Amino acid sequence: GDVIHRMLTATQYIAPLMANFNPSYSQNSTVQYLDNGTVFVVQWDKVYLQGKEDMGSFTFQAALHSSGRIVFGYKEIPVPVLQISASQHPVKAGLSDAFMVLNPSPDVPESRRRTIYEYHRVELDTSRISSLSAVEFTPLPTCLQHQSCETCVGSELTFNCSWCHVLQRYL
């Protein structure tokens, strides 16, 4: 999105491994990406933790597929993730999304004009992240994948569709 705020790393992320990495520590460290139209991949290759370079280098990636599938791949995780300190930066892995509401009212103090609503988070058990492992997220079916209201209502979705009077369709 185009809104940057101090709670961004807490509320809006796709993170195979979030920690205090320093990609400029070594000339061999890189953060690369590839987009071929069906998959967007970001790879952190031989990156080190700031101030903890003696722990070794980490190599991992996130692949975002156009189908909605997300795959986190871990090639080199030299220490258990639970041993990484969160004192300088959060340590987490998973997905989270939120949106911000701006209140334009002059009666509201500046500090309360922005409200962030986190509406979904999936946290990975970081004790299970290890070298040569992967995690796959597959999207749940939604009514948006259907071409008509009839096919949506007739499908076996795991939630209840309801009629939206504004859009004149089932949601």
Automatic annotation (TrEMBL):
GO terms for cellular component: membrane. InterPro entries: PLXDC. The keyword NADP does not apply. Keywords: Membrane, Signal, Transmembrane, Transmembrane helix. Its main location: membrane. It is a single-pass type I membrane protein. The keyword Signal applies. It comes from the Eukaryota. It is found in: Membrane. Belongs to the plexin family. PANTHER family: PLEXIN DOMAIN-CONTAINING PROTEIN 1, TUMOR ENDOTHELIAL MARKER 7 RELATED. This is PLDX1 protein. The lineage of its organism: Eukaryota, Metazoa, Chordata, Craniata, Vertebrata.
